[in-house]
Amino acid sequence: MTAPFTLAPDLLWLDGRFQHGKAVRVDADGRIAAVVDDPAGGVRLPGRALLPGFVNAHSHAFQRLIRGRTQRRADGEGDTENFWSWREAMYSAALGLTPEDVFDVARWCFIEMMRTGITAVGEFHYLHHQADGRPYADPNELAHRVIAAAESVGLRIALLNVCYVTGGIGHDLGKDQRRFGAASPDAFLDRTRALREHVEASALATVGVAPHSIRAVPRDWLPELDGFAADHDLPLHIHVSEQPAEVDACVAEYGLRPVELLAEDGILGGRLTAIHATHLSDAEVEILGQSGASVCACPTTERDLGDGFLRGRDLLEAGVRVCLGTDSHTSLDFLEEMRLVEYNERLRRRARVVIAGEDGRGGLSVAPPLLEMATAAGARSLGLPAGDIAPGLHADLIAVDLEHPSLLGASADTLGAALTLSATPDVVRDVWVGGVPRLEDRRHPLEEEAAGAFARVATRL
Amino acid sequence: MTAPFTLAPDLLWLDGRFQHGKAVRVDADGRIAAVVDDPAGGVRLPGRALLPGFVNAHSHAFQRLIRGRTQRRADGEGDTENFWSWREAMYSAALGLTPEDVFDVARWCFIEMMRTGITAVGEFHYLHHQADGRPYADPNELAHRVIAAAESVGLRIALLNVCYVTGGIGHDLGKDQRRFGAASPDAFLDRTRALREHVEASALATVGVAPHSIRAVPRDWLPELDGFAADHDLPLHIHVSEQPAEVDACVAEYGLRPVELLAEDGILGGRLTAIHATHLSDAEVEILGQSGASVCACPTTERDLGDGFLRGRDLLEAGVRVCLGTDSHTSLDFLEEMRLVEYNERLRRRARVVIAGEDGRGGLSVAPPLLEMATAAGARSLGLPAGDIAPGLHADLIAVDLEHPSLLGASADTLGAALTLSATPDVVRDVWVGGVPRLEDRRHPLEEEAAGAFARVATRL
């Protein structure tokens, strides 16, 4: 099936609800041409609902390797583990990877993403150098491998090129962080420029700028990185306030909390996405809302790492656009990422239907805001013309099986809630990216080859 | 495939870890005969890990009908919804069901359970009477339908016959609770006796006693119900402290919190399972631990209803056996039930590997306690000789696909963690109950018929 074509599902997610009798016309260039009524001659998708593909705004693909490997503690090693001991295990995995491994692990991770309905990823890429810390002959070698992996799978990718300088505020990089470093803002921006040229002809890849965090980038580098992003209209991503210790260090050094610092230095604004933003003061929530910035929550990772609870409803009420990321890939179930934003609020507030938006039936329902986080908010964060079903946007689409056991009994009115709160991820049957079918009936053409290559890396490490 | 046979998987869950080179011999009576080494002539299960089936200790099968239907609020109806408004919607669904509907909804729900690896269910059954409140000609009509549904699917069932008397402490049943009531302890126990006779010849069904809760059963009925359970060695299940309002009402009326009351009246003990037990004082945690009672957590329901957080680690440290239930079936993913016990603790405590047990490699891992909750603890709660792989127990077994994308890269050492924290529920490929294959390659022979019948009920209501 090659575009142009018209996809005519039983139900289409449009204007915050599922609608019958609508179809999507896709142009030969892989963009959405129009939403049309009662099409004749379209490609019928019986028993399917069509939605915009999910946008995964924060990923470290290589961390898929350590799934299941950090869930124990050696006896006598204390009462629990924590984020920081997890990070050591993650660094250890990062040190062992060859360029071929980086490709193999990312390719598999991207296929697994597609199986849960993800059509675009923001890859927060900080693994730059050789295992001994020296740059590769092409300093973007590993970024190229990650991009090639996404292109081979057919996944849209925003390579968020990470600037990583210090091992903590004012501290040199640690020995096990030697593959991440940048020598100067110029050196980092030169690499970023070269990456932009590298993807110029790509139908799937774009580039963004990602100062790792307040703890890993000197404060006086930030304006230059932000200026570069502004000059080229690129997204700017930064980890913010994932752990209390990080907030404390920022306050101790600068007398400001991380979001306050970003505001004071003029970095906050519509192009910025604060990753995690878990430990925010009330004032920081307000500042974020006024700035037009996005927050990227990574709920399954944040629960795995014991980070703490997102202030989901507070952020939304303050006007922050909240998007979602799978981050460490401890699981790959984008429906679970969505529902945790609502469910963690229910547990904390002892209430139901906490995050809700107009459902087109005179009420408020959980599905519109959760699906908006998973689609349009992510696309905005990554600067992609995608994340919605509207003319001119990329035809990045997913088809959901209405006869799947977990959805059985849902009507057009209740499907949104059943999908976001109750369905298992294998409801996603088909995926198109840029109008090209990539996953058909849950099968990706590269699945076996990619699984074999990934398993070989996993066994070796 | 008919027993006797020997199942020889790649990995067997045995003594808290996955082991190579072990097989399970199943007798002609559907019980486990032995665990044997390096079998010849066994049924090879390549690419499979074999585990005891999961025991779902708390279910209201008919609530599967309202999945997705209570996730909105009418505009202007306040800031959020809550448990009590959800309950009204649930009652409304209960009022519309015919006996045939009860069978059809339960049958579908039980098939969906089996797809997530559940081999036995404790069905907390309180829907007893006709829609107008009068008993059926056979007062156990609806219980028979639920049991028949489980038997048709091949699921083991403990029918926990519910005694429901008041609509709140000292209040008559509400109008929309008219299908639940019991006129006297004798009337209730007569029905329970008849149910026991009904299941006498069943290979799959047993019976338990379930005073609904402190709020729904007069305090002076409890000793008689408990005495009956003790005389016949039956499990005793009761909802405890799901909502703060329920605790407050108990304190106001009796000057005791629910667990304190159960202790004072001599009801607490090894046969009792407290369902939910969310809002416990420190003293109640201790009392539960000393009593030998079980607690059944229902994490996906408790998050859906905004109940609050289980004190998981506190309970385990006090010596309480914690088992799991899917309760309202807002989702049916038993792996998610397991992982939420650990993950909610991580979020609250900002730590990792909070609930951990000896992993046979000199360390502590999340998998042994989470899988114990899902299997042996549930079987104990329901009084079933099941929930483990050991001679004499029911051959209730599940095979997990080691090549499933979500498990790719796991080794024997990390599989337990990957399964409990990271896998999607479709890793379960095959299910045996009582040595009989019930689900093969994720297909249940009744799936299409049962789905059609369920969908007809869902559409009508």
List keywords for this structure.
4-stranded parallel sheet, 461 residues, alpha/beta, Urease, subunit C, domain 1, 8-stranded mixed sheet, TIM Barrel
Write a brief caption for the model.
The structure is a homodimer of 461-residue chains. Chain A is 35% helix and 23% strand.
3D structure, described in words:
Two copies of one chain form a homodimer. Chain A has 461 residues and is an alpha/beta fold. Chain A is built from 15 helices and 19 strands. In chain A, strands 1, 2, 3, 4, 5, 17, 18 and 19 form an eight-stranded mixed sheet that branches. In chain A, strands 6-8-9-10 form a four-stranded parallel sheet, with helices on both faces. In chain A, α2 crosses α15 (447-460), α11 (334-349) packs across α14 and α12 (367-374) crosses α14 (415-422). The longest helix of chain A has 17 residues, at 99-115. Chain A is globular, with a radius of gyration of 21 Å. The two termini of chain A are 40 Å apart. The model of chain A has no long low-confidence stretch (mean pLDDT 96). The interface between A and B is large, with 79 and 79 residues.
Write the layout of secondary structure elements.
2 copies of one chain form a homodimer.
Chain A: E1 5-14, E2 17-19, E3 22-26, E4 32-37, E5 43-52, E6 54-59, E7 72-74, H1 83-95, H2 99-115, E8 118-125, H3 141-153, E9 156-163, H4 185-198, E10 205-211, H5 222-231, E11 236-240, H6 244-254, H7 258-264, E12 272-276, H8 282-291, E13 294-297, H9 299-304, H10 312-317, E14 321-324, H11 334-349, E15 357-358, E16 363-365, H12 367-374, H13 376-382, E17 397-401, H14 415-422, E18 428-433, E19 436-439, H15 447-460
Parallel strand pairs in A: 1-5, 6-8, 8-9, 9-10, 11-12, 12-13, 13-14
Antiparallel strand pairs in A: 1-2, 1-3, 3-4, 5-17, 15-16, 17-18, 18-19
